[in-house]
Design brief:
CATH architecture of the largest domain: 3-Layer(aba) Sandwich
Number of strands: 13
Strand order of the largest sheet: 3-2-1-4-5-6-7
Helix content: 40-55%
Strand content: 15-25%
Radius of gyration: 21 Å
CATH class of the largest domain: Alpha Beta
CATH superfamily of the largest domain: Glycogen Phosphorylase B
Number of domains: 2
Amino acid sequence: MKIGYMYKMHAYPPKGGNHVHALELVQGFLKAGHQVCVLDDPTMPGVSNFSGSSEDGLRAFIDNIDVLYIRIDARYLGESPEVGACMELAGGRPIVWEINAPANETLAFSWLGGRRLDVPESWLKRLKRWFHAFQKMPGIKKEESLRRTLAKRVDSAICVSTALKGYASETLGISDTLVLPNGGPLISEEEIELRRKKRASDRFTVFYSGSAIYPWQGLDYFAAAIRLAEERAPDIRFLLAVNQYSDSLPSGSHVEVVQGLNREQILDAICSADACVALHPEYFWSPYRFHGSPMKLFEYMACGTAVVTSDRGQMAELIEHGSNGLLCSDSPENILDQLIRLRDDPELARRLGSAGWQMIQQSRSWSDNVTATLDIFTRLLEAKER
């Protein structure tokens, strides 16, 4: 099978969750013996890369594929005319959308950006947030209209959450949909033990991986819990791996912030931690409330480390409190309570980490995602041949 994958980024080496997603799928397709064509990504190993800047390049891309697979996220399709052009050139080839976000995810910057739980927000700043969001609404409406128009040509949608399945079927009108959350790497127990030997501290360590500037990463919640821990649990060590520094990052003798770790270093840190956190705020402006599939959650579990995560959306669907992880509210007190529980009960932390690891091994790995995605491609191709 020859797969055309459009994702509009340089995905290797991976710098974020979207890069990891594209990389894992592409390498999985290649490992399964298929050919992969991409547009404008000379970094991706093993693929045929085509230019998206000319009609000849787009036509050559389409002529070399059997199925067209397109990543849909918060970036506007209206700013990527090559998507519509390739869909038109595709002819009778199956078209599958990988849906990661509705257009209104862009409002996260309006409502959540720069927020700090320890600093009361003035009425002026609230007004600025409202005005910033109001300015974005016409663009969101236009983008969703374009998506609905293009979706008429889509044969199937792979949605990373149940919320996005609702978005695909109810808003975009795509009837053939599948929920396929993000995955985690398959890491053996032996490899985990080897990585744990690199541990640098004997203190109970809580690890966070993510952005210090993207508001959907929930760092403001975590930072408030860290400040609270300075009084209630000063023995807990917090290790934060971020891509960039911010003045909102917590500080203190119990906090260490590291920047720019590569993926192997991130996995080392996860394996060496006693607990990991994945906190995500509610999108109160959205009918879906929370639509994401936090990749860090899957990577934490893949490393056999106990997770504390927000009690909403996909996190609440995957995590059974006390069985394969701990769920928390948004309050700093409750977040810290869950971490203290793990600190005080090492056997519970071990059991939760093991249960999370088993989940990835049995059904939530990137290998499982690749198989499910290829099954859709095969089904659609066979239906076209009938």
